[in-house]
Design a protein that fits this description.
Helix content is 75%, strand content 0%. Helix 1 packs antiparallel against helix 2, helix 1 packs parallel to helix 3 and helix 2 packs antiparallel against helix 3. By secondary structure, the chain is mostly helical. The chain has 3 helices and no strands.
């Protein structure tokens, strides 16, 4: 009888999940790049606002990218301080 270690069982589980995880990772990266490209193409956005959106998009990953693409793309004039 062949016994497998817990580590070998975990690696086997991960190997079985890869076909599902890889497409999700590709979609997540694509959303992040689309959001960042759109963010840096915006000319009418303050630097501080842009920096906050960069942190939201990069650190919150998928949800941050979706929030930016829905809420952050609204054209707003630059606030004069």
């Amino acid at each position: 009888m062949i016994t497998t270690t817990p580590l070998a069982q975990e690696l086997n589980t991960i190997r079985q999940m890869l076909p599902f995880l890889i497409p999700l990772a590709v979609i997540e990266l694509a959303l992040m790049f689309i959001a960042l490209i759109d963010l840096f193409k915006r000319e009418n956005m303050k630097s501080s606002t842009r920096l906050i959106w960069v942190f939201v998009i990069v650190l919150i990953n998928t949800i941050g990218s979706i929030v930016y693409l829905i809420a952050g793309r609204k054209d707003k004039p630059i606030d004069s301080d």
